[in-house]
Amino acid sequence: MSSVRSLLDNLHRNYLQTRYLASVVRNRWFVDSKQVFERISVAGAWDYSSQLERERHARVLTRVAERRGDNSWGRVLELGCYDGVFTQELATRCSTLTACDISPDACSRTASRCAHLPNVQVTHLNIEKDEIAGAYDLVFAMDVLNYIYGRDRLTKVSAKIAAALQPNGLLIITDCRLAPELREAWFRRWVPTGVDSIVSLFAEQLGWRLLHRESHPPSGEDAGPHYMAHVTALFEKNIPI
Ligand SMILES: C[S@@+](CC[C@H](N)C(=O)[O-])C[C@H]1O[C@@H](n2cnc3c(N)ncnc32)[C@H](O)[C@@H]1O
Questions:
Q1: Overall pTM surpassing 0.90 (yes/no)
Q2: Distance between CA atoms of 160 and 204, rounded to whole angstroms?
Q3: Of 178, 214, 219, which Cα lies nearest the Cα of 195?
Q4: What's the CA gap between 232 and 131, in Å, rounded?
Q5: Domain limits at 39?
Q6: What is the distance in A from the centroid of ligand 1 to the CA of 144?
Q7: From the CB of 37, is ligand 1 less than 6 Å away?
Q8: 80, 116, 120, 208: least CB-packed within 10 angstroms?
Q9: Ligand 1, from 82, 100, 158, 231: best to mutate by most atoms within 8 Å of Cβ?
Q10: What confidence tens digit (pLDDT) does each residue in 143-192 have?
Q11: Closest residue (by CA) to atom 26 of ligand 1?
Q12: CATH assignment of the domain containing 146
């Protein structure tokens, strides 16, 4: 009986992994990300002002304050700002804040939300295809790197972010963990989706030093159906000697 059970578990896991890999292939080669995220933004499909999301934002700001203190954090870049809920929180801590998104609608929603904040500038930018201009003290990449499909593309994005940071600048990554059945999938080396693989990939690059990593909830497992387990990771730009 237990061998039948384990056979069924294996079949189920293989099915989920194959289905996931197919979705990655589709997203990488057959989907126009700009259109997808524009539709999501226009529909207002995501709510980043919910209590759980605001708690996630507050946790991240606390972790950064532990490293950078309560004075201004200088010039800051936020990748994937969506409708600017986090942007608005972050702006009060920076001398300048450049918020960007692949979706023009998300950019205009952020610009309206932050219209009263003169230090916020909103830019339309695809982190995969466009250059990232500037020299920042901090870069926030929150819940955005999971949408870059493939080791090659993520490695390029990592190099671009490193180039846009000052020496000893901080990179803050948050993202969701994959479902347990997908975390050990055989293709994860080539397809580093899910925050565990993304953090490992950044940690392997010469340009970064991992300073801090934490899971939320601390068990590392999902907090109900609408909030997948998250990881926050802080990296410092590392100049190889
Ligand atoms: C899940 S939301 C995260 C919102 C916010 N950063 C937070 O954590 O509360 C992801 C955002 O990233 C944007 N995005 C996805 N791919 C992107 C890309 N290649 N370049 C820039 N923004 C992207 C989406 O349009 C969306 O607004």
A1: yes
A2: 15
A3: 178
A4: 25
A5: 2-237
A6: 5
A7: yes
A8: 116
A9: 82
A10: 999 999 999 999 999 999 999 999 999 999 999 999 888 888 888 888 88
A11: 82
A12: 3.40.50.150
Give the pLDDT confidence score for residue 3 in this predicted structure: 87
Phi then psi for residue 51, to 5 deg, are -60, -40
- Cβ of residue 86 lying under 6 Å from some atom of ligand 1: yes
Domain count, the chain: 1
Report cis status (omega within 30 of 0) of the bond before 225. no
